[in-house]
Amino acid sequence: MDKGYEKERFESISIKSSVAQKFKKYCKAISKSQSMTLLAMLEFFEASGLSPEERLGPNIKTLESLFKKRINAVIAIVRDIEKNQTKPTVAMMQSLFEGFETDKKPLFLEKKQIENDEDNKASQIQSNLMNKGI
Predict the structure, then answer these.
(1) pTM here?
(2) Where in the chain are the domains?
(3) DSSP 3-state assignment of 70?
(4) CA 44 to chain CA centroid, nearest Å
(5) What dihedral do alpha carbons 52, 57, 58, 64 form, nearest 10°?
(6) How far apart are CA 111 and CA 105, in angstroms?
(7) Cβ(24)–Cβ(34) under 8 Å?
(8) For residues 84-120, b (16+ Cβ closer than 10 Å) or e, as one string?
(9) 25 CA to centre of own chain
(10) Torsion sign across C-alpha atoms 59, 61, 39, 29
(11) Is the pLDDT of residue 2 over 60?
């Protein structure tokens, strides 16, 4: 039974026997009842705005070219963002980090100088104590 249509009654439609046989085969192929198959077909044509007499060949090609144009536009936007925003930002960040590295080098030298000064003071105190005989 068709879901949602259990309580509805059946109507008859007059169609040619060759068309009816072809429709029955199609319904079996997609595993739907004849009512649901016909409803799906009608909804498809209404939603897509197509007529059963139209051929989809040119329409599909038109849609495909439209999609390609939109995809190319998106690719161009992403490339522009990368060129004008991402790469300059990365370059600025790298220059900042390089600047920090050069600033750290003198700090290490100063720290070594302080340690050397402390060692020199300690050795002077020891030599003074030795000179005094202590």
Answers:
(1) 0.41
(2) 16-51
(3) helix
(4) 30
(5) 120
(6) 10
(7) yes
(8) eeeeeeeeeeeeeeeeeeeeeeeeeeeeeeeeeeeee
(9) 42
(10) positive
(11) yes
The closest of 23, 20, 16, 55 to 37, measured between CA atoms, is 23
Distance CA 52, CA 41 (A): 10
Kindly tell me if the per-residue pLDDT of 111 is higher than 90.
no
For the record, the structure tokens of 61 come out as: 């090609």
Q: How many CB atoms lie within 10 A of CB 134?
A: 6
Q: Is 43 in contact with 37 (CB distance < 8 Å)?
A: no
Query: For 28-52, what is the mean pLDDT?
Result: 87
Two structure tokens written together for 53: 């007499």
Element at 46 (helix H, strand E): helix 34-48
Between 23 and 6, the more confident residue is 23
For position 72, what pLDDT does the model report? 93
